Amino acid sequence: MLAESVGGLTQAAAPPWLVGLVGLGLIGYGVHMLVAARYRRLVLD
């Protein structure tokens, strides 16, 4: 599903900087989720 979305951007008339920006956003989101998972505190009653 993700590959289809990025593939659609590259096949469309999207400029290369926009494809790079989307890629950086996805990488940033991945880093954010890794950090959130590492430092998340679970409260068990």
Keywords for this structure?
single chain, 45 residues, mainly alpha, 0% strand, elongated
In short:
With 45 residues, the chain is mainly alpha-helical.
What does this structure look like?
The chain has 45 residues and is mainly α. It has one domain. The chain is 76% helix and 0% strand. It has two helices and no strands. The protein is elongated, with a radius of gyration of 16 Å. The mean pLDDT is 84.
Please give the structural blueprint.
Elements: H1 2-11, H2 16-39
Major beta sheet summary: none
- Shape, per Cα inertia axes: elongated
Low-confidence stretches: none
Number of domains: 1
Number of strands: 0
